[in-house]
């Protein structure tokens, strides 16, 4: 999968993909990520990319020309399954969306800034609009990083047995059960006996019960 990201703040996306699982996904050739500075696609003076909004009011709007120029130049080189606009008024990201997107070919992400982008870009170029939750960020960059992380780790072949996504929280609409590692006892705090029993059937039952209880207590909405 190839993911291209168009942004006015490329610096914000310099390092999030250079670590851990996403780094390995790229090293394995399963994922390629390219960040593009929107200003490089402006043909205006001072590489202008935003302007005052018609009708008045505070806040700038990202102009059509640089954004469309960037989208079309990238589309000439790569075929994208989705052109995704990161915006607080998009559909809220969840695990099922991440699963579906991880199976796509290539994605083009556009990070919103200021008051957002000219509505006509949304009408004519954007195929999906995604938010990462009900709070406002200064721009779509950190949301794009979250989206790429959530998708990247699910791309077939990226995770191994040890990091398998099968038992992630949300994977079957349940939160993950508690986990423990050495030592067996610390300051008198013991690891649940069942986990030391070696009885894998019993351990799986215990984990499932814990996951259910935890979900019931913390996120009953997931069980409905
Ligand atoms: Cl995608 N962008 C911004 N600016 N704020 C957000 C968001 C996106 N998702 C949640 N808050």
TrEMBL record:
- A single GO CC term, please? cytosol
The terms under GO molecular function for this entry are:
tRNA (guanine(37)-N1)-methyltransferase activity
Example of a GO biological process term: tRNA N1-guanine methylation
User: Which is a Pfam family this sequence falls into?
Assistant: tRNA_m1G_MT
- Report which residue ranges the record marks as coiled coil: none
Question: Does the record carry Transferase as a key word?
Answer: yes
Binding site residues for S-adenosyl-L-methionine: 112, 132-137
| Catalyzed reactions per annotation | guanosine(37) in tRNA + S-adenosyl-L-methionine = N(1)-methylguanosine(37) in tRNA + S-adenosyl-L-homocysteine + H(+)
Q: Does the keyword GTP-binding apply?
A: no
Q: In this protein, which residues make up the domain named tRNA methyltransferase TRMD/TRM10-type? A: 1-224
Q: Give the top-rank taxon of the lineage listed in the UniProt record for this protein.
A: Bacteria
* Function per UniProt: Specifically methylates guanosine-37 in various tRNAs.
Which family would the database say this protein is a member of? Belongs to the RNA methyltransferase TrmD family.
Name the PANTHER family on file.
TRNA (GUANINE-N(1)-)-METHYLTRANSFERASE
Q: What is this protein called?
A: tRNA (guanine-N(1)-)-methyltransferase
Q: Top-down, what is the taxonomic lineage of the species of origin?
A: Bacteria, Pseudomonadati, Bacteroidota, Chitinophagia, Chitinophagales
């Amino acid at each position: 999968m190839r993911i291209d990201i168009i942004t006015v703040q490329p610096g914000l996306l310099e390092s999030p993909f250079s670590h851990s699982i996403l780094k390995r996904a790229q090293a394995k050739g399963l994922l390629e990520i390219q960040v593009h500075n929107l200003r490089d696609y402006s043909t205006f003076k001072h590489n202008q990319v935003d302007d005052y909004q018609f009708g008045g009011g505070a806040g700038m709007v990202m102009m059509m020309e640089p954004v469309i120029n960037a989208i079309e130049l990238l589309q000439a080189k790569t075929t994208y399954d989705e052109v995704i606009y990161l915006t607080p008024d998009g559909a809220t990201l969840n695990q099922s969306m991440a699963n579906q997107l991880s199976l796509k070919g290539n994605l083009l992400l556009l990070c919103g800034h200021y008051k957002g982008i000219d509505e006509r870009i949304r009408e004519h170029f954007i195929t999906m609009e995604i938010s990462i939750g009900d709070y406002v960020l200064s721009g779509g960059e950190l949301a794009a990083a979250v989206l790429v992380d959530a998708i990247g780790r699910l791309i077939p072949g990226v995770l191994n047995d040890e990091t398998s996504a099968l038992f992630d929280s949300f994977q079957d609409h349940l939160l993950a059960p508690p986990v423990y590692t050495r030592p067996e006892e610390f300051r008198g705090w013991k690891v649940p006996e069942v986990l030391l029993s070696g009885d894998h059937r019993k351990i799986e039952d215990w984990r499932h019960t814990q996951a259910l209880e935890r979900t019931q207590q913390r996120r009953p909405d997931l069980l409905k």
